[in-house]
């Protein structure tokens, strides 16, 4: 396991209920995006948004809740070993022949798709929370809306 693939449960959940001012994008000590979960199990905006974007762009191959399908790997397992850097590289450029040596089923490259690129950190954050076992199946409840984050996404999308 690479050093920066370590779960960040401690940093992400330490302390009490966050204030609205805390609801930005969270980074672990290595500077990688991570989640924040409050004592009631509610998640920060990015983790919630990542779920939505995962469902829209990744679920059809990787299955509901990241659990995999017959032709694409279980990402809640894969993220145990993939660093953020590895993840980003694969999502931007695609991947083939690691799982499906026949080449029949490949991971598309998303580097030109703003729907994925504008939310890549959010998708990673959601999957990291799933891989760490701190977010269950289905849509996580979010702590609060995050207007600045939403506006940043829309701006990235060119709205
Ligand atoms: C058209 C189907 C399809 C879609 C849609 C898709 N993937 Fe994949 N993905 C695959 C396949 C197939 C593989 C395995 C490729 C291989 O054999 O190397 C894969 C591999 C991966 C891997 C590497 C896993 C590993 O450890 O080798 C990551 C990470 C990943 N996908 C993330 C995503 C994310 C995030 C999305 C949504 C933005 C997404 N995928 C959408 C089919 C898909």
UniProtKB/TrEMBL annotation:
Pfam families: Cytochrome_CBB3. Residues 1-27 are annotated as: Disordered. Residues 8-19 have a biased composition (Polar residues). GO terms for molecular function: electron transfer activity; heme binding; metal ion binding. InterPro entries: Cyt_c-like_dom (IPR009056), Cyt_c-like_dom_sf (IPR036909). Gene3D superfamilies: Cytochrome c-like domain. This is C-type cytochrome. The lineage of its organism: Bacteria, Pseudomonadati, Pseudomonadota, Alphaproteobacteria, Hyphomicrobiales.
